[in-house]
Structure formats: C-alpha cells, structure tokens
Amino acid sequence: MSTTVMLMQLTKGLAVTAEIFILTLLFSLPLGLLISFGRMAKNPVIRNLSKIYISIMRGTPLMLQLIVVYFAPFYVFGLKIPNYRFPAIIIAFALNYAAYFAEIYRGGIESMAVGQYEAAKVLGYNKSQTFFRIILPQVIKRILPSITNETITLVKDTSLAFVLAHAEMFTLAKQIAAKETSIMPLMVAGVFYYIFNLIVATVMEKLEKSMNYYR
Amino acid sequence: MENVLLQIEHMSKSFDGMEVIKDISLSVKEGEVVSIIGPSGSGKSTLLRCATMLEKMDGGNLSYLGESAVWEEDGKCVYAPKAQMKEIQKSFGLVFQNFNLFPHYSVMKNIIDAPMVTGGVSKKEAVARAEKLLAQLGLSDKADAYPYQLSGGQQQRVSIARALALQPKILFFDEPTSALDPELTGEVLKVIKELAAEHMTMIIVTHEMQFARELSDRIIFMEQGIIQAQGTPEEIFNSSNERVGEFIGKFQS
Ligand SMILES: Nc1ncnc2c1ncn2[C@@H]1O[C@H](COP(=O)(O)OP(=O)(O)O)[C@@H](O)[C@H]1O
Ligand SMILES: [Mg+2]
Description:
The complex is a heterodimer.
Chain A: H1 3-39, H2 44-59, H3 62-77, H4 85-110, H5 114-122, H6 127-157, H7 169-180, H8 184-210
Helix pairs in contact in A: 1-2, 1-4, 1-7, 1-8, 2-4, 3-4, 4-6, 5-6, 6-8, 7-8
Chain B: E1 4-15, E2 18-29, E3 33-37, H1 44-51, E4 59-64, E5 67-73, E6 76-79, H2 82-89, E7 92-95, H3 107-117, H4 123-136, H5 152-164, E8 170-174, H6 182-197, E9 201-205, H7 209-215, E10 218-223, E11 226-231, H8 233-237, H9 242-252
Parallel strand pairs in B: 3-9, 3-10, 7-8, 8-9
Antiparallel strand pairs in B: 1-2, 1-4, 4-5, 5-6, 10-11
Magnesium ion is lined by residues 44-45, 175 of chain B.
C-alpha cells in the first residue's frame, strides 16, 4: 500500500472520528445540564437516581459501556436494529460524557453567589429567565477550563469505538498496521490525533478569551 | 388621606426555632423616609428580606398599596398567587449591601435588562430611562463599563439605578454603604439624599447615624427582633430609652 493511499484512508477515518466527537458534544452537553438539574433536584428520588447514574457512568469503563449499549437491545430485548453500530457509539459516548459534564455543571452552578439569584428575583426575573440570562452565562465562563479538559479527553476516547469495529481513525490505523506489518499507520494516526487536539485547544482558548471581557 | 404604601402587621420569623423577628408591625406612607438602626443581629436584614419576599415569613400580614401579598390563615402564612405577586413585586425595589450587580452585563445592560425582560418596556424606553438615571447619579460616562471596572461607590450607584429603572414606589436599602471604603460612602449617601429630596419612599437600614438623622422622617430602633423605639430623628436622638441612648452614643463618639 502506498503512503498516499494510507494517508487517504486515515483521513477518511479522521472524518469519522470528528463526526463521533461533534455528535457526542452536541448531545452530551445539553444532556449533562439536564442531569445536573436532576442531581440538584429537591425531589430525593430524582436526585438519587441522577447520583446513581453519574456514579455508574463514571465508575465503569467506557469500552464496556460501548459494548453494552451495542449488544443490549438484542441480547436483553431481542431487538434487531438495522444500522445500529454508529448510533450505538454516539449513544454510549453521549451518555458517558453527559455524566462528567453534569458534575462540571453542578460545580459551576453551586459556586454561584446566592446574591445573583436574589437580585434577579427582586428585579422580577422568573426562574428560567434567572437561570438562562443571569446564572448560566457566568457558569459557562467558570467551567470552560474543565469542559476543555473533557473535550480533549473525548478526542482521544473516540478511539475506543474500535471495540465495535467502527471505521474511525484508530480502527483503520490498526487494521492497516496489521496488514502491512508496519507501525507507520499508527504513528500517523497519533499525529492526526495530536493535530485534532491542537485545533480543539485553540478553539477553546479563543472561547475562553472571548469571555474575558468581564470578571 | 395619606397613601399607605407598605403595611406590615404582626410579622414573625424564626430560624431553626430561634425567633429573629417578633411580632413587628410597621406602616410606611408615600414619600416617607424611614431609617432602621440597631445592633448587628437584631433582625434588620431579616425584616427587609421578609418584606421583599426573599425570605418566607412565619406569621403576620404584608401588603403593598393595599394589595395583600401575605396573610395568615390557620396560623400559617399564605402568599398571593403568582400573577398577583408579580404585580405586587413591581411596587418595591431593594438595594443590597454588596450590590449584586450582574458582572457579565455592562452598566447599561444591568439597568435596561430587567425593565425589558420583566417589565415589558421597549428597548428605546429602557435606554432613555437608563440614560436619565445615569446622568442623575453622575455615571453617564460609565454606561459601557463592566462592574469590575468600577469602584464600590460607583457599583452601588449603578445598583440603585438598576432598582430605580423599574420605577418602584418604595425602595429598600440594606446597609448600602457598609461594604464601601469610608471615602466612598459619601457619594452613595448623597444619591440617597437626592432621592429623598424627590420624595422617593425609602426604608433604609444603616449604621450612618448622622445621615439617618438628617434624612429620615422617622427612625426605628430595632433590637432582638422587636422595634424598641421609633420616632422622629429628634425624638430618637434625645430618647430617654437607655438602650437607644447607649446604641447611638457608641456611634457618636
Ligand atoms: N438564613 C439564616 N439562617 C439562620 N439564621 C439566620 C439567617 N439569617 C439570619 N439569621 C440570624 O438571624 C438573626 C438576625 O439576623 P439579621 O437579620 O441579619 O440581623 P441584622 O441585619 O440586624 O444584623 C441573627 O442572629 C442571624 O444569625
Ligand atoms: Mg444586616
């Protein structure tokens, strides 16, 4: 296999990796916020369920979660879902990352001074106006560094999708490496991951800077 | 007939079984300036927080402009339904000791956001109000600044402007100068004095005795959750009540 062909295949794999990455963020960021609400709920049933959820998601391997999400519909419910491989990967990643994001949101929300809520209340803001106009923007600024950390981990974690033999970059790199008995494809994949993460870090840094107009 | 804006009857409030407000009754008429003084822990903030509904009262009645906000039924306090409460809330504003400005909003946005979002005021009208208030409070050049760029005195003036932008009938202050460096208290007190001159109805918790004396129509001395004494500044400052005399004496030395 020529180097060009290998690069082309890995680039295709990188596109799939990026797809997993983007879809995971798209679903897990809002879901995490929802779960953090559950985690902080007054209702003890909702609160404890959320707590258990977070604990399981953070306490078991993501690789195992991928396998469970993919095989459970058939082995537990006897369901055969066509073209389920990719959705299963996104579901597992989103469920897992939402748990981490939930704890980050919670930390940020709980760090807000009560005076912000009180000022908003006296000024007539209702609960959702208070949250979305006053609290959340400040929370996002505070938690952005932690979100950046998780996001960079996610780029690397996408490689775990290889357990379901999905054609993302790492799976492909491993296959080519085995076929060609060369470590080159894996090295190239490593470089690609690194560049991907450089881009992610740069974007996140820009985002953080864009919120530096206040303290 | 003079218009009663705020009526508190037999208000009580406990924290963990400790009674912090004990059967307090108080009514404030339109245009009146009432100062509340008293030692730390006497329940002044709690009184204001119950009156502004940041804290739930345990007993008693509360009404604004004759509209009942809270009343007692079977020994428990009942709060007016949401829609009514929203209207009642419009009649008062509160200025906090530590300002509680929204740090992510500019000065202008801090002032116009609530009228636009909660008061149904157009942007044009909100900005016009804000510009007028900023000019009045000497902050015209700070409209685009963010709170962290302002001194404490400026921040407190912005928070007063933010409260006034909703055009409340009555304005509460909880120690508006206590978080400020001494050299900055003057500019905030001056603003409050100007509001008094315009007959803004105000209830001010303060430790600034001279200020309270000059400005108030009535001074209330609170201690241990009750109104120990009240009267005109002259009555309070010449009070024969031992506790009042002792308290005021401490501040005048
Ligand atoms: N949220 C609260 N929980 C428990 N105790 C409180 C709370 N707020 C105030 N207190 C207590 O109530 C008493 C009166 O407090 P406060 O109204 O702040 O007094 P002041 O404003 O006159 O200094 C104090 O003993 C204070 O510790
Ligand atoms: Mg106080």
